[in-house]
Amino acid sequence: MLELLDRKETELLELFSQNDLQRRIKEIAEQINNDFSNEEELYVISILKGAVLFSVDLVKSITIPSQIEFIRLASYGNDENSSGRVKPVDLSLPNLEGKNVLIVEDIIDTGLTMEFLVKYIKAQLKPKNLKIAVLLDKHCARTHHVDVDYVGFPIDNKFVVGYGLDYKGFYRNLPYIGYFPQ
Ligand code: IMP
User: Fold this and answer.
1) Which of 59, 100, 119, 149 has minimal CB crowding within 10 Å?
2) φ/ψ of residue 39, rounded to 5
3) Which is the catalytic residue, given 57, 106, 109, 137?
């Protein structure tokens, strides 16, 4: 029997509209273009699956010659809380030694995922320059310190969906970001 999704889209309250997101993403891209203006190339690492919509829109406004890579990590299971572990699903990346690297993530919550990834990339791949862009920052949920260079929007500690972010695998396709009221 088909398992019914217990949270309906009609219950969602909008937090950031499609326009809010697109406007802010263009601003972040401009900052990135300025910060890397003297550089010949940039390697953008998008974290699947959540960051895919954000990455696609961000790179469209990045003017530095860029390569785009995708890696897959998982720290959330099928519910609304971090499992407390990072599971590398696919970490295959090209040689990034001496390169400019930008990690693109949908949301930073406890910071566990990003801390793991930054340590891994710095130690194993030795880039020249490593910067981090996140669309949403749940700063009050942070238990692992990470320096984030570009933040779309700081948010309260609520579970959000849409624009790449999922609940039980659904709602990633929404063009806006919303939350389910308690
Ligand atoms: P962290 O390791 O606790 O910082 O969690 C980061 C990951 O948890 C993100 O890449 C998301 O996949 C997921 N995540 C955190 N908060 C939310 C949320 O509010 N909605 C959907 N996914 C979330």
Assistant:
1) 119
2) -100, 150
3) 109
Residue 102 in any domain: the answer is yes
pTM strictly above 0.85: yes
Structure-token pair, residue 134: 């996140």
Question: Does 21 map to a domain?
Answer: no
Question: Structural domain of residue 149, as residue ranges?
Answer: 31-74+85-174
Per-residue pLDDT reduced to its tens digit, 136-165 = 999 999 999 999 999 999 999 999 999 999
User: What are the φ and ψ backbone dihedral angles of 110, each rounded to 5 degrees?
Assistant: -70, -25
Structure tokens at 78: 């099928």
Residue 20 in this model has a pLDDT that exceeds 60: yes
Identify the CATH number of the domain in which residue 127 sits.
3.40.50.2020
What per-residue confidence (pLDDT) applies to 120?
A: 94
Asked whether 76 lines ligand 1 (CB < 6 A), one says yes
Count of all residues that appear for the chain in the document: 182
Residue closest to 30 by CA, chosen among 9, 2, 58, 10: 58
The DSSP result for 86-128, as a single string, is: EEEEE------TT-EEEEEEEEESSSHHHHHHHHHIIIII--S
CA-to-CA separations, 101 to 16, 33, 110, 139, 168, in angstroms, rounded: 28, 13, 22, 23, 30
Find the 128 Cα to ligand 1 centroid distance in Å: 27
